[in-house]
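Bug: token stream looks shifted between consecutive jobs. Job 1:
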Amino acid sequence: MALCFLAIELLSFASSYLANLVGPAFLQSDPDGVFLLLIAHHTFLLILTLLVMKSFPLTRLTDWGVNFKKWKTSLLVIAVFAILFGLLEYSYMRGGTYSPGFPLTTSNKFGWQIFQYFFSGLGEEPLFRGLVIVLLLNVMRTTRLAVYQQHVFIVVVSTALFMFAHLDVDWLNLSISGFEFGQQTKAFQLGILYAIVFIHTKSLFAPIVLHGLSNGLTASIGFYVV
């Protein structure tokens, strides 16, 4: 657990540092700083996570979920999720307001959706589901717990780490500087779903797509419906 937490924090910090290095190059294309810096951050996060996976001896990327195992099951889960989540999100958001916190220009809306649909899951799932869960699975196999108990423990721990990563933490003062109840609730619910799907399919394909859909559909419904 400590190793997983350390890996998440170090990889996230390194990705942010690298993204900020190239950030000035995005000012002309993304003057409001809405999406290109986030795309760079998640791209670096993906690359660094894959490098860490490759650094483990006697393992291949396929062992960490970089494969299309049980792809038919994954497609079925994706289709059902897209329909149910879209309907639930529309019902929840209908009659309210959607304030993403940036100017709603055509460029910003398009770029934000590109990031959410294609880069949010691609950057985060290999770390939070692939690296974290595979590490925990290998450790838990050495315990005397039943398989279902191991899986419940792993789902809970990986989801807790996912939720913590969505907090704004002031490490200098050891305090939480930002907390959004709605975001944490969604991270809890979806984190459990992504973890269960990954453990069942042993593939990152469905979790990546589900993650992108959950974020992207919220943005699209907010922009064009609400």
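Job 2, same session, no restart:
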Amino acid sequence: MSAVRASTGWPRWSLLFALVVSGCDAPSVAPGAPPPSATASVPTPPPAASSAAAPALAEAEAPPPVPDAIIAQHLLVAYKNAKRAPKGIARSKAEAKARAEEALAKITSGMTFEGAVKAYSDDAGSADRLGSVGKFRHDAMDPAFSNAAFALRVGQVSGVVETPFGFHLIKRTQ
């Protein structure tokens, strides 16, 4: 750099400005001393955070423990040949999915879950109980149903969940 400085006549402040802009620390140069060489040491990065702090942070962000059992309600839209489909169900699988999506849209726009159960559910047994399936453990239901139900927060309604029984909307109540 001294050759560049000498040949261009750049003032010393421009060298310091270039170092600051590039993110390097300005070298300590005594007045009248030759400028630092191009092979000056590169500043070392700060030490990595202590690994002892990492577990504490991970513990603080851990999700709450999964309960052994929850209580939920569901709305079931069955289709022809679905497992345990009530007699008289003639809709296709695609029609059943569309009906479940319609029920979800109604709930999203303000209809109560219980009202949607009365209007859309094909599960006569739970419809009498406003969709309640009671308290159940994770392994007591179809895996898709349980995974969706246990992933919900209390009061939250799932999206459309497909099981061999048809298409469900699930609301976790406890």
